[in-house]
Amino acid sequence: MVIVEVVFVYPGMGQLLVDSVAKRDFTIMQTACLLFAATYILFNLASDLISIASNPRLLHRK
To answer: Which phi-psi region, left, alpha or beta, contains residue 10 (left: φ > 0; alpha: ψ -120 to 50)?
Structure first.
């Protein structure tokens, strides 16, 4: 993510996280990590729900 932001000169969350680590700004580091983790969890939940909705055999165990 940081590489894409640096190559295309597009400021984003990855660059914010790297800058906050360099400046030792712990509150921004924690917030950025929390947002990354929440996004990861929500995308995994959405993919699980979509796979269950598209394949009804996943609803019931054998």
So the answer is: beta
Task: Establish if 61 belongs to a structural domain.
Answer: no
Task: Note the pTM of the prediction, 2 decimals.
Answer: 0.68
d(C-alpha 41, C-alpha 48), whole Å: 11
| pLDDT tens by residue, 27-58 | 988 988 898 899 999 999 999 999 988 988 88
Overall number of domains in the chain: 1
Instruction: Report if residue 59 sits inside a domain.
Output: no
Residue 22 lies in a domain: yes
Domain that holds residue 11: 2-54
Cβ count within 10 A of residue 32: 19
Tokens found for residue 30: 């924690």
